[in-house]
Specification:
With 245 residues, this protein is mainly alpha-helical. The chain contains twelve helices and two strands, in the order H-H-H-H-H-H-H-E-E-H-H-H-H-H. Helix 2 crosses helix 10.
Length: 245
């Protein structure tokens, strides 16, 4: 969360100079963003604030740990697909320890014994493979995305324990678990959303540029290359890993 907030701050400078060549769908994206933002204001944000008000910080941490662990096989898979063999085995060990000793992930036992948590997805894998980022897209309900990251819908769903649990558990169990998953996620983003609302002259551009900077940060494992001084737009290069201009 601290990293994302820092990226939001950095995006303020980008708002004044950002070009639109990576956002050719901006009119449609803005309309979708407005719908998503309206839904957030009338539904998700109130639910998230209510959730925060009635739960302790410790309980929220445990719930967040559970959902992070339930989706962690996506990180395991993409660590291997990116050729990070050692990290992939560490990620698999982390998942197994938290799923067992950590009681389905509610307790992050793995971190306490030195198994670092990573964040990998298929969009990052495609970047490593040299696939250009393509256009920025705002999806209904889901939010910011890109052409390159879109296939992650498939891998993240296929590696989500909650998705597969729907085949063996009743809807009375899986539906509340799914709702809580998104309420918990929205609660985690409240600080960033509040900063956006307080500081952004154009919330759409603020969100777009912060999302793109965060993606760049993740693709390079926290060490993105320095930009040349003449580059006004830090995202002028669609493909950060390709040899193409």
């Amino acid at each position: 969360m601290k990293v994302f907030l820092a990226l939001l701050m950095l995006s303020l400078s980008a708002c004044a100079t950002a070009r639109n060549d990576f956002d050719p769908l901006q009119p449609v994206n803005r309309a979708t963003y407005a719908v998503n933002d309206g839904l957030d204001k009338v539904l998700l944000r109130p639910l998230a604030k209510g959730y925060t008000a009635v739960t302790s910080k410790g309980l929220r941490t445990a719930i967040s740990n559970f959902y992070d662990n339930a989706t962690y096989l996506n990180t395991v898979l993409n660590s291997f697909l990116q050729g990070k063999g050692k990290q992939g085995f560490n990620d698999l060990e982390r998942f197994l320890i938290n799923s067992t000793v950590g009681m389905l992930g509610f307790a992050d036992v793995a971190s306490s014994i030195g198994l670092e948590k990573h964040n990998e997805d298929f969009g990052q894998t495609l970047a490593v493979w040299g696939v250009p980022q393509g256009a920025y897209i705002v999806y209904p309900f889901y939010g910011p995305n890109s052409v390159r990251k879109t296939p992650d819908f498939v891998t993240s769903t296929a590696t989500d324990a909650l998705f597969w649990s729907a085949f063996v558990l009743s809807p009375q169990v899986t539906i509340p678990l799914t709702v809580l998953k998104y309420v918990d996620l929205r609660a985690r983003l409240e600080d960033a959303a509040s900063m956006r609302d307080d500081m952004a002259l154009d919330p759409y551009i603020f969100t777009r540029d912060a999302w793109r900077q965060n993606r760049n940060y993740l693709i390079y494992d926290g060490h993105p290359p320095a930009m040349s001084s003449e580059e006004d737009d830090p995202f002028a290069e669609d493909d950060m890993f390709s040899s193409e201009d």
